[in-house]
Amino acid sequence: MALILIVEDEVFIRQSAEWTIEDLGHKTLSACDLGEAMVHLSAPAPIDALFVDMRLDALPFGGYDVADQAVALRPGLRVLYTSGTPFSQDMASRFVAGGQFLQKPYSPEQLGASMEQLLN
Prior knowledge:
Blueprint: E1 3-7, H1 11-23, E2 27-31, H2 34-42, E3 49-53, H3 63-73, E4 78-83, H4 89-92, E5 100-103, H5 108-119
Parallel strand pairs: 1-2, 1-3, 3-4, 4-5
Protein backbone atom coordinates (compact mmCIF):
# COMPACT_ATOMS: atom_id res chain seq x y z
CA MET A 1 0.00 0.00 0.00
CA ALA A 2 1.34 3.42 -0.99
CA LEU A 3 0.56 6.95 0.19
CA ILE A 4 -0.28 9.25 -2.73
CA LEU A 5 -0.46 13.05 -2.53
CA ILE A 6 -3.09 14.41 -4.94
CA VAL A 7 -2.77 18.08 -5.95
CA GLU A 8 -5.74 19.15 -8.06
CA ASP A 9 -7.67 22.43 -7.90
CA GLU A 10 -10.91 21.03 -9.36
CA VAL A 11 -12.72 19.47 -6.40
CA PHE A 12 -14.67 16.89 -8.41
CA ILE A 13 -11.56 15.65 -10.20
CA ARG A 14 -9.62 15.58 -6.93
CA GLN A 15 -12.32 13.54 -5.16
CA SER A 16 -12.66 11.17 -8.10
CA ALA A 17 -8.89 10.57 -8.12
CA GLU A 18 -8.93 9.97 -4.36
CA TRP A 19 -11.70 7.37 -4.65
CA THR A 20 -10.03 5.60 -7.56
CA ILE A 21 -6.64 5.45 -5.85
CA GLU A 22 -8.18 4.33 -2.57
CA ASP A 23 -10.11 1.61 -4.42
CA LEU A 24 -6.69 0.31 -5.53
CA GLY A 25 -5.82 -0.14 -1.84
CA HIS A 26 -3.66 2.95 -1.43
CA LYS A 27 -4.02 5.86 0.98
CA THR A 28 -4.34 9.45 -0.20
CA LEU A 29 -3.62 12.96 0.97
CA SER A 30 -5.16 15.82 -0.98
CA ALA A 31 -4.39 19.45 -1.66
CA CYS A 32 -5.89 22.09 -3.92
CA ASP A 33 -2.74 24.22 -4.24
CA LEU A 34 0.98 24.46 -3.54
CA GLY A 35 0.47 25.71 0.04
CA GLU A 36 -1.63 22.72 1.05
CA ALA A 37 0.75 20.39 -0.77
CA MET A 38 3.74 21.80 1.11
CA VAL A 39 2.02 21.14 4.44
CA HIS A 40 1.77 17.45 3.54
CA LEU A 41 5.26 17.33 2.04
CA SER A 42 6.78 18.93 5.14
CA ALA A 43 5.17 16.39 7.47
CA PRO A 44 6.95 13.15 8.33
CA ALA A 45 4.51 10.84 6.49
CA PRO A 46 6.32 8.71 3.86
CA ILE A 47 4.69 9.91 0.63
CA ASP A 48 5.31 7.49 -2.23
CA ALA A 49 3.98 9.43 -5.20
CA LEU A 50 2.55 12.76 -6.32
CA PHE A 51 -0.47 13.06 -8.61
CA VAL A 52 -0.51 16.65 -9.87
CA ASP A 53 -2.58 18.71 -12.27
CA MET A 54 -0.30 20.62 -14.62
CA ARG A 55 -2.62 23.65 -14.76
CA LEU A 56 -3.00 25.05 -11.27
CA ASP A 57 -4.19 28.60 -11.83
CA ALA A 58 -2.45 30.21 -8.87
CA LEU A 59 1.05 29.25 -10.03
CA PRO A 60 3.03 30.49 -13.03
CA PHE A 61 4.08 26.96 -13.98
CA GLY A 62 1.24 25.07 -12.25
CA GLY A 63 1.96 21.46 -11.47
CA TYR A 64 5.55 21.83 -12.60
CA ASP A 65 6.13 24.18 -9.65
CA VAL A 66 4.52 21.72 -7.24
CA ALA A 67 6.51 18.76 -8.58
CA ASP A 68 9.80 20.69 -8.56
CA GLN A 69 9.33 21.73 -4.93
CA ALA A 70 8.06 18.30 -3.91
CA VAL A 71 11.11 16.56 -5.37
CA ALA A 72 13.41 19.15 -3.78
CA LEU A 73 11.96 18.14 -0.38
CA ARG A 74 11.67 14.45 -1.20
CA PRO A 75 14.25 13.36 -3.77
CA GLY A 76 13.14 10.34 -5.76
CA LEU A 77 9.43 11.07 -5.33
CA ARG A 78 7.49 9.58 -8.23
CA VAL A 79 5.27 12.04 -10.12
CA LEU A 80 2.19 11.52 -12.30
CA TYR A 81 1.29 14.71 -14.20
CA THR A 82 -2.24 15.16 -15.55
CA SER A 83 -3.61 17.68 -18.03
CA GLY A 84 -6.37 18.26 -20.53
CA THR A 85 -3.71 19.57 -22.89
CA PRO A 86 -2.36 16.87 -25.22
CA PHE A 87 1.10 15.57 -24.38
CA SER A 88 4.07 17.22 -26.06
CA GLN A 89 7.85 17.02 -25.80
CA ASP A 90 7.85 20.59 -24.45
CA MET A 91 5.82 19.32 -21.50
CA ALA A 92 8.07 16.34 -20.98
CA SER A 93 11.14 18.56 -20.88
CA ARG A 94 9.77 20.13 -17.68
CA PHE A 95 8.96 16.82 -15.94
CA VAL A 96 11.01 15.76 -12.96
CA ALA A 97 13.15 12.67 -13.55
CA GLY A 98 10.90 9.67 -14.07
CA GLY A 99 7.75 11.80 -14.32
CA GLN A 100 4.86 10.26 -16.22
CA PHE A 101 1.80 11.76 -17.94
CA LEU A 102 -1.92 10.95 -17.95
CA GLN A 103 -4.20 12.76 -20.41
CA LYS A 104 -7.53 14.15 -19.15
CA PRO A 105 -10.23 13.09 -19.33
CA TYR A 106 -9.26 9.65 -18.11
CA SER A 107 -11.29 6.73 -16.84
CA PRO A 108 -10.83 5.23 -13.39
CA GLU A 109 -9.24 2.23 -15.12
CA GLN A 110 -6.72 4.45 -16.93
CA LEU A 111 -5.85 6.26 -13.69
CA GLY A 112 -5.48 2.95 -11.88
CA ALA A 113 -3.20 1.53 -14.56
CA SER A 114 -1.08 4.70 -14.65
CA MET A 115 -0.76 4.77 -10.86
CA GLU A 116 0.25 1.12 -10.69
CA GLN A 117 2.82 1.64 -13.46
CA LEU A 118 4.19 4.67 -11.61
CA LEU A 119 4.53 2.76 -8.36
CA ASN A 120 6.14 -0.34 -9.89
